[in-house]
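User: Structure with adenosine-5'-triphosphate, tokens only please.
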Amino acid sequence: MVSIEVQNAYVDFPIFDAKTRSLKKRVLGKVGGKIGTDAKVPIIEALQDVSLSLKDGDRVGLVGHNGAGKSTLLRLLSGIYEPTRGTARVVGKVAPVFDLGIGMDPEISGYENIMIRGLFLGMTRKQMEKRVDDIADFTELGDYLQMPLRTYSTGMRVRLALGVVTTIDPEILILDEGIGAVDAAFLNKARDRLVDLVRRSGLLVFASHADDLLLELCTTAIWMDEGRMRKQGSLREVLTAYKGRDPYENMSAEMLARLGAEPAVAGKGGE
Ligand SMILES: Nc1ncnc2c1ncn2[C@@H]1O[C@H](COP(=O)(O)OP(=O)(O)OP(=O)(O)O)[C@@H](O)[C@H]1O
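Assistant:
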């Protein structure tokens, strides 16, 4: 059984080369985590007192403004960061998908990169050999798959990476929003595969600024604000609080049908 238990976790980044004198006591803008300047070295308090308990079947969206701590939390859940204080206990194999390009080698072919990327995400060589044709079809890259990756455009690389990512069978899938960078037509094609991927995953945590993707993939959410968990609950409830309006308001009929949702009732927030 997969599970994630985080208790009173903090993640600090000491900044040794910051120009201390020019730093304000506290970040005044809306963007960025909290900067503490009491110590000799300024410290960015990227996560503060975060506690959460996730289990098999949970599909959690992470929302919050730029610098609120979403990516830091995803890295903590992936075991990439250790908490400075508190604890983070993860049971299960994590497939971290932060940057679609990570684990790709520009000098080898698209085909070889499919294998490498799959191994990086925890698949075996045998499993990847079975899936490589399906991935190749999905990317529509044809003969380009025999060319070195450095000859690809950004969009072509994303197609390749997304093709691999959507074929894995993760126990714990940690997704950062990079997947939103694909062009709209291709993302539409990838949506069904993403939905399937999430269905196969034991547990999903997905940070994104895109409401429609969150609504499609997640059921609950956490709103991060200045490194703290500001609200946790059903996705609709959290998005309504974060955005100040029901996410289903003004949604196209097509999207509503896709999500199998009822239209928002005027004046009624949350579920
Ligand atoms: N490696 C690092 N070194 C120093 N500071 C960092 C580091 N990573 C993140 N931070 C800081 O921690 C805070 C939280 O950043 P994080 O990347 O987790 O935010 P985010 O919510 O994912 O933002 P975005 O939506 O822009 O991706 C920010 O103030 C950021 O400047």
